[in-house]
Structure formats: C-alpha cells, structure tokens
Amino acid sequence: MVAVFARRAHVSPSQLRRLRDGESEPSRRLMVALTETASAMLSRPVYMVELFELSRADEAIYTAILESREPK
C-alpha cells in the first residue's frame, strides 16, 4: 500500500518512511500532493490536518484556502 500511495503522490517509498518516522519535514507542496492523493485513494475529502501536525500559521492559511473554496 505504501508503494502505491508513494507512486500516485510522485514520491519514493523511502521518502514517505522518513516523513512518517519524523526524520524529514515535508514541503507545503508535498503536503498538498499527499493530501490530494489520500483523498483520491479514499474517495472522500482528506484534510491536511488529518495527515500532518500544522503550525498555527500553516493551519490558518489552510483554513483560509478551504473557506475560499466553499460555495457561497
């Protein structure tokens, strides 16, 4: 499953393991790619906060992005 997820997110399985083990920090771009890949694989919206511990600043930015995408 890790290999499939990694391939779909365009990262190596070893990079995912380093992230999981806390040996590496993801870029924002990688966080988005992993979140979108998880959403596609699970056929439901997956939110970045489900996968990563965000700083308060990152969480505020992410919340603003989600709110801007909501239909008005």
Q: What can you see in these coordinates?
A:
The chain is an all-alpha fold and 72 residues long. The chain has one domain. It is built from five helices and no strands. The chain has helices spanning 2-9, 13-20, 28-42, 48-51, 56-69. Helix 1 (2-9) packs across helix 3. The longest helix has 15 residues, at 28-42. It is globular. The mean pLDDT is 89.
Please tell me what the overall shape is: globular
State the end-to-end distance: 38 Å
Total number of β-strand segments? 0
Largest beta-sheet characterization: none
**What is the tally of helical segments?**
5
Task: Give unreliable regions as ranges.
Answer: none
N-to-C order of helices and strands: HHHHH
Rounded average pLDDT: 89
Helix content: 55-70%
Write down the Rg: 13 Å
What's the short story on this structure?
With 72 residues, the protein is mainly α. It has helices spanning 2-9, 13-20, 28-42, 48-51, 56-69.
Q: What are the main properties of this structure?
A:
72 residues, 0% strand, globular, mainly alpha, 5 helices
Give the topology:
Layout: H1 2-9, H2 13-20, H3 28-42, H4 48-51, H5 56-69
